Amino acid sequence: MLIDTHGRVATDLRVSLTDRCNLRCTYCMPEEGLRWLSKPDLLTDDEIVRLIDIAVRLLGIAEARFTGGEPLLRPGLVGIIERVAALDPRPQMSLTTNGIGLKRTATALKAAGLDRVNVSLDTLRPDVFRTLTRRDRHQEVLDGIAAARAVGLTPVKVNSVLMPALNDDEAPDLLSWAMEHSYELRFIEQMPLDAQHGWKREAMVTAGDVLASLRTRFDLTPEGNEERGPAPAERWVVNGGPHRVGIIASVTRPFCAACDRTRLTADGQVRTCLFAREETDLRIALRSGAPDEEIARIWRVAMWGKKAASGLDEPSFLQPDRPMSAIGG
What we know:
Blueprint: E1 2-3, E2 9-10, E3 12-16, H1 45-58, E4 63-67, H2 77-85, E5 92-97, H3 102-112, E6 116-120, H4 126-133, H5 138-151, E7 157-160, H6 171-181, E8 184-188, H7 207-214, E9 220-222, E10 234-238, E11 244-248, E12 261-264, E13 269-271, E14 280-281, H8 283-287, H9 292-304, H10 324-327
Parallel strand pairs: 3-4, 3-12, 4-5, 5-6, 6-7, 7-8, 8-11
Antiparallel strand pairs: 1-2, 9-10, 10-11, 12-13, 13-14
Helix pairs in contact: 1-2, 1-9, 2-3, 3-5
């Protein structure tokens, strides 16, 4: 197993397939973009599949989430999913995407074995979308979400980040839209993972702000009395059900004590936490001919050293050098 000194066991693997993206979201990267990883630094399709195989066969990983950057920009994505679906044991597979290109690829992704998708959509207003993403592709995202539902990549989860003075008034409208289309909406607090390092805690829209806004229009009841475990989203039943809404409060209500994730970057680095400043290189071991058991050992050692918490509340907290687009959600 991938266990740490605090007794947490990682069963959820987040795999970044690329650091490239076709949007320029203001809370993620500058308008001019970033310096992308060079092709020789990226893991090949074969290397990605081999590492996932090691993770599920030797380390107890049960779920693989493909992320980016924007994973739909990875040329070999469908083939990777098809090969991972053939592994024994077969992990559950999901994809986090901005939805651009999903209309075109949803059928192939489902046929390859993908189980479901998370799609980022922060606003229902095309003009706000242009301001937030610096691109005019709002309808493509809406079409991609609808296509995912149509082919059965369900439940379709929609992730929204609210920003002050831009879309912080849209929480009720987003929830009403999600309920109408049977999408599962999740609000995510803005995290200190922007390339510009411009995040400020006092300026963010908090989980409390989102709940207060939603309750102006909906009756929200906490879902059950049991602990949510490693699931990042706290969920509420809307108007007595059956619809739910989730909030991922990584900043104001962190869930580090139950974290079950390990992360693999597009260039083959293991990260034990989204906010980690240390990485462990598996690419060198792969390319030097190390056997599967040795790669698994390196991975176990990396996870054993996972810190108890992200450190967001500590005065000494520093953002990781890599932005979210280079880490993978």
